[in-house]
């Protein structure tokens, strides 16, 4: 493994409260997660990203904290958390956590104090306006569920700013005390042993909000400050950020000091995510080729985090209306599958019609593209969604462990569960669960284990450079390569339904006993690379040559 562990990581994200319940109260907890670390180690995960674990009224699934220095009693104790870090480390797994400091819950003692009086020491920790700001109805993140970004608070007798829901007042990052507090929060968790943070809502964190100015200035240097702070406290800690901004804005989030990233280490590649969905919907790799071509070059040390599904809706807002409609048509045909006028609230397996070939193809493609793959819990067994639950909860149902009642997630009475398990239809736990798939070498879970093992033997995928192989291809087929000091991998993915034959003989001079290291079926010898067969939705990962370095 190279020095920059995050370039070769496999990140797995989960909500502690829907993963595994150890004490039978219906809510997943940290001890339950500890009990499942062996499962994650076997899967090949090297880093866990935990969604918020702090005390919270849970009106936005924990993205509304009331105490940044603690663990919600629903999930366990700080002691349990320290034990988790230890047990995970024993298995070579790092843990990063969500850092949600753009806002707090309105029940946070800071906000309670701030609203109580203009003289409160916390008044200035939030963003206020004495008069109704003219941009009150602009900039909402949750259209349909949120109708303003400035709300009047009767106790405070003033307007406060909230980029997200009304119960999530924004912290005032222009205030040096708030900045110092954010660093203190980070230090606290680093001191306990986390390997870094998934930073929530970064474009809004750095916004220096001015009432009446819907495009208030952004202070990117705050990110430089945070980076320095974090790196000083723990040299190999990382910042992985959610910043769904225009592509030309992305490089400044990484920062560039003498050619090296000096702000965030990693950004989620939202642009690629939308293009991947479009490519899968059209069965045409062109949008991915465009994404590979158009994404800005990164400074040294900067890295993309790729994903197909996360805990939120699939955000299609960066596609054109026509492109978005193509994706809707294929993957979110019913209105109830869509959310916020921009996305889809479904899991991947169900969007792909539970077609095993397409699920493998999609994940083989994601994991072979540049960047560090992020996998959401349950995707490895092909879980579905529950559209009867409101909003994003549809894709936040409990992990399906076994055939037992409640999918083996909890021993509580079903009505006590944090959220119902999926118990009907083809995605019900009776059909989709870990126990069944663990026993079956042909299961999706077994495939994920194999695919991730292969990935870990090919570090050039994460840490090398990825390029499209621009030679004539049959329709639907993408050819790309990853090059690094460890060698070269070549990938073929057929997004279409026609069998294809691909000629890559131009790569023959570079080849050194090339072989398929992962494929959807046995294709036989790769020969001189001039007649490579590929079935419908087929894929082949070919090791072209090994480098000298390792
Ligand atoms: C981010 C999270 C989302 C949350 C929001 C507010 O977008 O991904 O789940 O609701 O921030 O914190």
TrEMBL record:
Keyword Hydrolase recorded: yes
Listed name of the protein: Alpha-amylase
The protein's Enzyme Commission number: 3.2.1.1
Reactions that this protein is recorded to catalyse: Endohydrolysis of (1->4)-alpha-D-glucosidic linkages in polysaccharides containing three or more (1->4)-alpha-linked D-glucose units
Entry keywords, A to Z: Carbohydrate metabolism, Glycosidase, Hydrolase
The keyword tRNA-binding is annotated on this UniProt entry: no
CDD domains: AmyAc_TreS
UniProt domain Glycosyl hydrolase family 13 catalytic: residue ranges: 13-416
Biological classification of the source: Bacteria, Bacillati, Actinomycetota, Actinomycetes, Micromonosporales
Organism: Micromonospora costi
Gene Ontology biological process: carbohydrate metabolic process
Family that this chain belongs to: Belongs to the glycosyl hydrolase 13 family.
Alphabetized Gene3D superfamilies for the sequence: Glycosidases, Oligo-1,6-glucosidase, Domain 2
GO MF annotation terms: alpha-amylase activity; cation binding
């Amino acid at each position: 493994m190279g020095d920059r562990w995050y370039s070769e990581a496999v990140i797995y994200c989960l909500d502690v409260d829907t993963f595994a319940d150890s004490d039978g109260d219906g809510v997943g907890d940290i001890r339950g997660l500890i009990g499942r670390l062996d499962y994650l180690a076997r899967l090949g995960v090297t880093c866990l990203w935990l969604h918020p674990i702090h005390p919270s009224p849970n009106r936005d699934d924990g993205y509304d904290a009331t105490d940044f220095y603690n663990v919600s009693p629903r999930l366990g104790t700080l002691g349990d958390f320290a034990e988790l870090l230890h047990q995970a480390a024993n298995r070579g797994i790092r843990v990063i956590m969500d850092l949600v400091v753009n806002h707090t819950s309105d029940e946070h003692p800071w906000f309670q104090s701030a609203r109580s009086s203009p003289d409160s020491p916390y008044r200035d920790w939030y963003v206020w306006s004495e008069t109704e700001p003219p941009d009150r109805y602009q900039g909402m993140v949750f259209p349909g569920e949120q109708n303003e970004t400035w709300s009047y608070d009767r106790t405070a007798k003033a307007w406060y700013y909230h980029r997200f829901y009304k119960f999530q007042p924004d912290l005032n990052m222009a205030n040096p005390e708030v900045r110092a507090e954010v660093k203190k929060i980070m230090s606290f968790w680093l001191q306990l042993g986390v390997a870094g943070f998934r930073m929530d809502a970064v474009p809004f964190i750095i916004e220096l909000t001015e009432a009446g100015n819907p495009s208030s200035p952004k202070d990117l240097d705050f990110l430089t400050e945070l980076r320095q702070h974090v790196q000083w406290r723990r040299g190999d800690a990382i910042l992985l950020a959610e910043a769904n901004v225009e592509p030309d804005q992305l490089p400044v989030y990484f920062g560039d000091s003498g050619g090296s990233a000096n702000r965030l280490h990693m950004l989620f590649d939202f642009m690629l995510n939308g293009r991947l969905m479009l490519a899968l919907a059209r069965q045409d790799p062109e949008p991915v080729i465009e994404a590979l071509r158009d994404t800005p070059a990164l400074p040294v040390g900067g890295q993309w985090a790729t994903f197909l599904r996360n805990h939120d809706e699939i955000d299609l807002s960066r596609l054109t209306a026509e492109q978005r409609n193509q994706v809707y048509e294929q993957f979110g045909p019913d209105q109830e599958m869509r959310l916020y006028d921009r996305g889809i609230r479904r899991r991947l397996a169900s969007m792909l019609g539970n077609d095993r070939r397409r699920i493998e193809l999609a994940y083989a493609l994601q994991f072979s593209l540049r960047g560090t793959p992020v996998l959401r819990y349950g995707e490895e067994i092909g879980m579905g969604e529950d559209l009867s639950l409101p909003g994003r909860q549809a894709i936040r149902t409990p992990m399906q462990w076994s055939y037992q009642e409640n999918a083996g997630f909890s021993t509580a009475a079903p009505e006590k569960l944090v959220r119902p398990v999926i118990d009907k239809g083809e995605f019900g736990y009776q059909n989709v669960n870990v126990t069944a798939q663990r026993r079956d070498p042909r299961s999706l879970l077994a495939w994920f284990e194999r695919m991730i093992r292969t990935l870990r033997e090919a570090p050039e995928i994460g840490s090398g450079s990825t390029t499209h192989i621009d030679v004539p291809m049959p329709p639907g087929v993408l050819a790309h390569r990853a090059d690094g000091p460890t060698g070269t991998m070549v990938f073929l993915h057929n997004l279409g339904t026609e069998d294809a034959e691909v000629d890559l003989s131009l790569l023959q001079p570079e080849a050194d006993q090339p072989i398929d290291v992962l494929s959807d079926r046995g294709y036989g010898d790769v020969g001189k690379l001039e007649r490579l067969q590929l079935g419908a939705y087929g894929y082949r990962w070919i090791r072209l040559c090994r480098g000298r370095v390792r």
